[in-house]
Structure to design on (183 residues):
């Protein structure tokens, strides 16, 4: 299926089973249901977005949630925590749109810098973050488990939204039309 439209909306507690399924499919050491639930419902700094098929394009056989992003806004810092996109939906602008919406929300709430950690071997994610404007600032030895691996620390300082152009992928942010040309 060629997906031309998706929307990004705040996650709700009823989406937790689908988010957990995606988490388990994407990570070798996934967050537990309880960890996701705390981030979604109890952490005052946490924000949770999901990318989902537009209602009219989703079918019963396809999962509605195709990606999610958990991030924290703590005073002047935006911390990207977890980003997951269904494998069949990667390289279609979903991850970029989720990160860009997090950057927009961070700026809206007066964040001035953004930080993240990513597995050293996760070249697609590192490339995405670099294209968006993050730079590597450090690494943490043996940070990840299953398998044990270093983390690459990346930062965007000052926090900005890239004006780089991409093909229009047609998605909506909470009901408003947008395209990656604007991001």
């Amino acid at each position: 299926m060629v997906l031309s439209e998706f929307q990004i909306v705040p996650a709700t507690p009823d989406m937790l089973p689908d988010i957990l399924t995606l988490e388990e499919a994407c990570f070798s050491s996934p967050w537990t249901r309880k960890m996701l639930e705390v981030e979604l419902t109890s952490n005052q700094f946490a924000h949770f977005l999901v990318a989902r098929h537009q209602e009219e394009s989703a079918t019963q056989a396809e999962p509605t949630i195709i990606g999610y992003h958990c991030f924290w806004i703590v005073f002047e810092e935006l911390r990207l925590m977890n980003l997951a996109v269904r494998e069949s939906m990667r390289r279609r602008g979903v991850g970029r749109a989720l990160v860009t919406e997090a950057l927009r929300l961070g700026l809206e709430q007066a964040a001035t810098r953004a930080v993240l950690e990513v597995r050293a071997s996760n070249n697609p994610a590192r490339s995405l973050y670099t294209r968006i404007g993050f730079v590597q600032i450090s690494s943490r030895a043996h940070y990840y488990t299953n398998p044990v691996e270093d983390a690459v620390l990346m930062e965007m300082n000052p926090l900005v939204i890239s004006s780089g152009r991409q093909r229009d992928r047609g998605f909506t942010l909470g009901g408003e039309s947008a395209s990656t040309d604007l991001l």
Remarks:
- The domain at 6-114+163-182 is CATH 3.40.630.30 (Aminopeptidase).
- The chain is about 25% helix and 35% strand.
